[in-house]
Amino acid sequence: MARYLKLKLKTRQKYGLASPEESIRRKKKVIPRQTDYGQRLEQKQKLKYIYGVMEKQMKRYAKEAFSGKGDAQIELLQKLEMRLDNVVFRLGFGKTREQARQLVNHGHILVNNKKVDIASYQLSSGELVSLNEKIRKNHFFTSQIQENQKSLVLASYLEYRPDSGRVLGLPKKDDLAQNVDIAKVMEFYREII
Fold this sequence. Notes:
Layout: H1 8-14, H2 36-51, H3 55-67, H4 72-81, H5 84-90, H6 97-105, E1 109-111, E2 114-115, E3 128-131, H7 133-136, H8 139-151, E4 158-161, E5 164-167, H9 182-192
Antiparallel strand pairs: 1-2, 1-3, 3-5, 4-5
Helix pairs in contact: 2-9, 3-4, 5-6
């Protein structure tokens, strides 16, 4: 399985995702003008980085979104939002999407009371996502979840219960990523698919 091995803080700063207090750069960097292709490429890479998806999976999601019946932009973001690792992150079980992905890969997450260790598993409406019994007994982990819940803003398509959560439906446009120009991403994939 492929992983993102580059410097994470530097990449977050490059895409404007780093908070000011974690930023170590003090000087303003002069950003050269970009071509249209460069802007589309940067937005695509930013979306891939946010969700932790590699290029092959992203192409497959884009192809499925284009062949769908609705708006391709919203369908692509819904596919990314309904991944198991993202829902685990959104429920506050992991501080980051990387940590949520690790929880899934290590078998600590149950979907409808069955162990699922595939991070890209697509959830559907009504499915229950919960922690397994071993991880619930871990005091360090339960205290971390309680800390995460204090600052968590739950998406409208999720319902949180202690140690579990339920997917209520598909994400709406308000729940989707706002810091990415998804139109440019779709333009990029329209040219290569």
